[in-house]
Sequence to fold (347 residues):
Amino acid sequence: MTTARVLSEEELAALIDDALDPGWAGLSCRPLPAVLDTDFIRTGLHYQLSKGIPPRSVRTARDGSLRLFMEYDTLVETSRRLARFAGQLGVPVAELRRIVDEDWLPHIDVVKLPDSLRQADPRALQVRERDADDFPAAALAALLSPCLLLTRNYKHFGVLGVRTHTQAVDGVMAMAAINVGEMQVRVVVTLPAIPVRAAAAGMKWATDRSGPVAWVVLFVLVGGGIYWYIRQPPGRREKISTVTGQVGTHLLNEFEKATDTVQQARLQLRASVVPRPEQRTPVSAILRELALSPESLSAQQLAELLAPSVRPPVAQLRAFLRKYDDAVFNQVRPGGFVLGLHYPLPD
Fold:
């Protein structure tokens, strides 16, 4: 006779990943980096004025699934264009500034890339040939790739994999669908284990209070349940078995629907991101690891996360972080760095 075993958190996570997509890699991190372009901000402002709530990208960043980044020159360009946006949207410039400052910028990390780092990925240089104003956002997105590039401008950013004007929105919606679907999968997988967990917790409590007597009571209850089932007429036992089978079938169907939803959303997200560079440079690896980290990292911690092929000596890495402190990086604790800083909208 086999007994039910409660899955550990690690086993549950592995089961979910295997069921959802055995080949899933690179985009499973949370939060996923996303880089904002100026034209996307105009679209987002229009949405917020129409709906009364920030756009999905900002809400998803607020929930922790996306991490929004913006190059500082893109932020300056946004400030410069607010008067034009205000005229198009029919609202005062002051109202747009208030929305950006209060609702958007608290969830956006701003990075001041020096020119040497902007030129680290040749794809960004191709964008610069099309439009110099798009170069900062392209450079940051290329360094953080794979990531979302939040733009509608597929003409200038085509070299970064942007093919349609809705691709950014499609990616954000896919991320939201993945979150919902993964939660549904966890619920379905965990649900059958709830009685076992509850029984285990109850037995622990009873044993602490009553000692071995609790196990005697448990055996009596289990034995009584088995005896009750055996004593039922054949028709009733068949009904009990039928209902039990229907519950199992329903859970399996719900599991399949949830995994299919997540798989489709993952495929959409893959199609929406800026592809990773053909060859990761040390600069790109450093910035991406910091973009993915939920907390600040020291040079030693960062070095341990980097692949050997792109790992500089710790002393050299520490000097690099300090060189670009208060611009690319922000030292939030002694020796602990994050990517980007928070800025108000420039005047």
